[in-house]
Amino acid sequence: MSIAENIAQVKQDIRLNEKRFERDMDSVRLLAVSKTKPISDLEEAYQAGQRLFGENYVQEAVDKHLQLAAYQDIEWHFIGPIQSNKSRQIAETMAWVHTIDREKIARRLSEQRPSQLPDLNVLIQVNISDEDSKSGIRLENLMPMVELIRSLPNLRLRGLMAIPAPQVTEADQMQVYQPLKQAFETLKAKDQDIDTLSIGMSGDLSAAIASGSTMVRVGTAIFGERAYTHKD
Q1: Alanine racemase N-terminal domain: from which residue to which, for each copy (predicted)?
Q2: How much is the CA Rg of the chain, to the nearest whole Å?
């Protein structure tokens, strides 16, 4: 199947799950995870109507942003870990950052965001499975980070993001997501800017949509397996 056909299939799956879980139609956006994929794949996805692209590696993200500068309606999302010495490149090129979990990174992105650009949309990454190997803050530490980001110029807090540990069943996946869903709903009720819950990938799409996801991150189902190993 072509990339265009894959995108159509993924979007159909999203719409079916919206209906299944009584979500509003088109309430879940598709973020195409394009890490390690060549520019030609992104162009093919763009021609198929895809506008949201997620990148994990800073230099690759910056290079693609430059090479596809003619497509001004692409919305670039950075979804990988952030090293403090590379925060400026992210602040200068990305529209969204999904992976804020440290005060130092939040402050650097705020300071380094060019004044001529709109505020940088940011999500706080939450470690909902309490995995020592995973990035993200614990839910009990969420509110101090929320207040910090709200106090910083040039950043706009839009919501939360998580990458949970794999689960055996859909019910188990939904159970893991439940505390995050509650935290998101609490934030949303207090702040009109909070509108994004970035959860769900190919393996847990249904459970994520059932749990309130507004943005799913899908790579392999769109572009196929990774073409090469990337070093940032």
Answers
A1: 14-226
A2: 17
